[in-house]
Amino acid sequence: MDTSSVGLLLALPVLLQLAAGGGSPRPGALLRGCPAHCQCEPDGRMLLRVDCSDLGLSELPSNLSVFTSYLDLSMNNISQLPPNPLHGLRFLEELRLAGNALTYIPKGAFAGLYSLKVLMLQNNRLRQVPTEALQNLRSLQSLTLNGASQITEFPDLTGTASLESLTLTGAQISSLPQAVCDQLPNLQVLDLSYNLLEDLPSFSVCRKLQKIDLRHNEMCEIRANTFQQLFSLRSLNLAWNKIAVIHPNAFSTLPSLRKLDLSSNRLSSFPVTGLHGLTHLKLTGNHALQSLISSENFPELKVIEMPYAYQCCAFGVCENVYKISNQWNKGDNSSADDLHKKDAGMFQVQDERDLEDFLLDFEEDLKALHSVQCSPSPGPFKLCEYLFGSWLIRIGVWTIAVLALTCNALVTSTVFRAPLYISSVKLLIGLIAVVNMLTGVSSAVLAGVDAFTFGSFAQHGAWWEQGVGCQVVGFLSIFASESSVFLLTLAALERGFSVKCSAKFETKTPFSSLKAIVALCAMLAATIAAVPLLGGSEYSASPLCLPLPFGEPSATGYMVALVLLNSLCFLVMTIAYTKLYCNLEKGDLENIWDCSMVKHIALLLFTNCILYCPVAFLSFSSLLNLTFISPEVIKFILLVIVPLPACLNPLLYILFNPHFKEDLGSLGKQTHFWTRSKHTSLMSINSDDVEKQSCDSTQALVTFTSASRAYDLPSNSGSPPAYPMTESCHLSSVAFVPCL
């Protein structure tokens, strides 16, 4: 006797009642077998749906109706099943036992469930799939075993040949049998995600497969025969694996494939053969996949996710799209009257020319509506054609790079012409020129990349953004910027301390201590610049190789921390110089020792502080989510305003500091002296000629800032002087006017 005959016999009393009464059955006729505390309702076929979920049951209810077609026992405390608990439920089609404490299912637990189609056993404590209990479920179509963390082997499902959907996730299965499709010829949905699969058999026998989910496994390769001849396959998910190699013909025989997810793998290349019917493609997270993919291979594509924004340029998503979308959004915000006017005038065409223009505009709107949705989308900082985007920024960067390199090189050569006879303040000026030159190098590299990729930046954007060169440029930029601020702070403190000591005729800080402080500043700047390299990828957030003051919270916090630190340095400089000027009486500034250097440091402080205000404003506005600043202004601040002190600092020294003219004039004399002394090295060191040369050279080196106590000369204790000092060399010619 088949299932339908048994059902008719069991439903005969109800049918007789319907025939005699001529109406619907009494509520008790079907709901008489509803267990206590459970919710029961008819399903429209004279059968009963019973919901006993989340009631704290420790065993199965005993008074279930024979007409039960749906039974939900999930989220209870059932730890074991009796041998034949549900044998009388011949009409049961769906059984849910999820979220219990089942560790074992006996052989006859599902005996008599001839109509069972859906079985859910997820989130239990099963150590193995109840193969013997499933053998007689000839009608079973869906089996769910999510969260089966203690299952290590794929079950034998030979007795469930009608199974159409199998979900076995969160287990410890590392391999699949080669005959998996022989056991399940009708399988349509296979979900084996969150397992430990390292290798896959051929699924070519599973001709009815429509969806395969294999995400979060350990697979490294997809061979050519793995998914061959799956003509019905529509969705394939291989995300979060370790796939580095895919055979060129792995997807060549999948004509129905519409969704393919390969995100978060290790792909460096992607085969496109056989994927012309795709509508959804995910490749995000494959950082080694940096080449562009042609849109001609995907004519039906609607949604695509790529590793880099530049790869979306091939699908028509460029900076021009942002202008169109902004106009489109702006049109959405227009008033109702404007919309009414547009609708009313849509078909009011005055002449053929207006009609032609209207059709062209309508065609463009259709293209915009049906364009591919590609993410991450290119934006103002990730352009398809150019790195800088505008000629104003491009000219500004080139100007800063040229001036910073040439002017700082000139200042460095004049200041460090004789390292043994250099004052403390000149040492700081020279070191500031050196770090400013590093800023010029980073700007020059960015300008070179812009020139090299001019008009086709999308082809090289991912390579440059993720390359070592971008990391080096970002490190140099932050290191040079922070070192310049620290050295300028140290110079301001040194000038205040020097003037104070000169007024009291006290001995200054030893030169070795100043060198130690400079080394400490360099180490601190290097540590700050290395934070993005160690803690994240802020330098690779954009092709500008700078931590952007928006977007990721870590980058925003980093920029705000830098602004606070630099603001503290500028505050210290301002306080030091304000105290210096307040302690001096009127007219004393012109009489203090080396007033030109005091004025020069003050000028540097003023210009650097003014130029740093836009950077601080930009960082705090991003922290407060103020988005009124346009991207072009942000790029201009980051690329032009931030490195601008690197070329202004040496220009101020060259144009307004009298020491530069003295150093530049003595540079030729010094070179001449070293050339002559090299040829006369074998002559007597006590000759009058050598003595005269030594004296002249020393007088040229000792300027307003080079004296012993008030001279700022480095102490060379324990070593003989570089040149013999005789009576013919007079240091008294150095003008020294102490404070009042």
Automatic annotation (TrEMBL):
Gene3D superfamilies attached to this UniProt entry: Rhodopsin 7-helix transmembrane proteins, Ribonuclease Inhibitor
Signal peptide (from-to): 1-21
UniProt keyword list: Cell membrane, Disulfide bond, G-protein coupled receptor, Glycoprotein, Golgi apparatus, Leucine-rich repeat, Membrane, Receptor, Repeat, Signal, Transducer, Transmembrane, Transmembrane helix
Superkingdom of origin organism: Eukaryota
Transmembrane feature ranges: 391-416, 428-452, 472-493, 514-535, 555-580, 601-624, 636-656
GO biological process, one term: hormone-mediated signaling pathway
InterPro entries from the UniProt entry: GPCR_Rhodpsn, GPCR_Rhodpsn_7TM, Gphrmn_rcpt_fam, Leu-rich_rpt, Leu-rich_rpt_typical-subtyp, LRR_dom_sf, LRRNT
Gene Ontology terms, MF aspect: G protein-coupled peptide receptor activity; protein-hormone receptor activity
Membrane topology reported for the UniProt record: Multi-pass membrane protein
GO CC, one annotated term: plasma membrane
Keyword Iron set for record: no
Main localization of the protein described in the UniProt heading: membrane
Pfam families noted in UniProt: 7tm_1, LRR_1, LRR_8, LRRNT
Role summary: Receptor for R-spondins that potentiates the canonical Wnt signaling pathway and acts as a stem cell marker of the intestinal epithelium and the hair follicle. Upon binding to R-spondins (RSPO1, RSPO2, RSPO3 or RSPO4), associates with phosphorylated LRP6 and frizzled receptors that are activated by extracellular Wnt receptors, triggering the canonical Wnt signaling pathway to increase expression of target genes. In contrast to classical G-protein coupled receptors, does not activate heterotrimeric G-proteins to transduce the signal.
Protein name: Leucine-rich repeat-containing G-protein coupled receptor 5 isoform X6
Lineage of source species: Eukaryota, Metazoa, Chordata, Craniata, Vertebrata
Name of encoding gene: LGR5
